[in-house]
Amino acid sequence: MKGKESKLLDSSAWLSYFFGESKKIQAMVESEQLLYTSVISLFEIKRKFLREGIKDGSAALEFIKERSIVVELDEKIAEKAAAISVQKKLHAIDALIYATAIDSNAVLITGDRDFEGIDHAVVIK
Questions:
Q1: pLDDT tens digits along 18-53
Q2: pLDDT of residue 125
Q3: CB 11 within 8 A of CB 45
Q4: Closest Cα partner for 12 from 119, 97, 90, 80?
Q5: Using CA atoms, how far apart are residues 29 and 79, in angstroms rounded to an integer?
Q6: Residue 50, class by beta-carbon neighbours within 10 Å (0-12 exposed, 13-18 middle, 19+ buried)?
């Protein structure tokens, strides 16, 4: 995979960035590279912040919205995700996010090991 391809960061990738867990993800976010985020990831990140009692969660979400293109769900993504979920044996949320990456012509960047060995997904440990 070329380094200039568009990337879709999932919840685990964004959380890794905010918690300083990955220099690779930090470099992606702080580059000029085009980034996408699924609207579902906004839900997952906000839920995580609320559960953990993190007060500056709104600032993090605003940063994501400014730094990346937030992709909404639509019928096309939903139907593609259903097929992907069955074919790749992914949970519904994972399949929706992966289908969003595919629909956006982007590589999925994740820390989720469920995506190991799946085309157009890079698992960063």
A1: 999 999 999 999 999 999 999 999 999 999 999 999
A2: 83
A3: yes
A4: 97
A5: 29
A6: exposed
Structure tokens at 64: 């994501």
Tens digit of each residue's pLDDT (9 = 90 or more) over 57-97: 899 999 999 999 999 999 999 999 999 999 999 999 999 99
Phi, psi of 57 (to 5 degrees): -60, -35
Please give the full DSSP string across 60-125, using - where no structure is assigned.
Answer: HHHHHHHHSEEEPP-HHHHHHHHHHHHHHT--HHHHHHHHHHHHTT-EEEE--GGGTT-TTEEE--
Domain regions of the chain by residue span: 7-123
**Structure pTM?**
0.92
Range 7-123 has CATH code 3.40.630.30: no
